[in-house]
Amino acid sequence: PDQMGSALRTVATGLKPGGLLVFRDHAEGDLAQRRFEATGGKRLGRALYIRRDKTLSYYFSVDETEALFREHGFEPVSVEC
After folding, report:
1. What's the pTM?
2. Which residues are bridge partners to 48 per DSSP?
3. Exposure of 4 by Cβ count < 10 A (0-12 exposed, 13-18 middle, 19+ buried)?
């Protein structure tokens, strides 16, 4: 999570002026997160989990996603769960 801003800056450099970025990921409270919690997934933070294979999974809230993108120069068109 601490490198999300860096990742967005990198993505922004590859977009043409007026380009559109489509972002889809896990939403906070979605079925994937509930399953993760039910199966004993290890929680590392409020919305951060680690899988058995050491892959990190982060569950975004709508407000958090919109703020993160705005903070890094994007203008969200639609943010929904």
Report:
1. 0.77
2. 58
3. middle
At 5 the three-state DSSP class reads: helix
For 46-59, write each residue's pLDDT tens digit: 899 988 888 888 99
d(CA 12, CA 17): 9
- Evaluate whether 63 touches 45 at the Cβ level (below 8 Å): no
Q: Where are the strands (E) in the chain, listed by range? A: 42-43, 48-50, 56-58
Distance from first CA to last CA of the chain, Å, rounded?
A: 19
Per residue in 1-15, pLDDT (tens digit) is 789 999 999 999 999
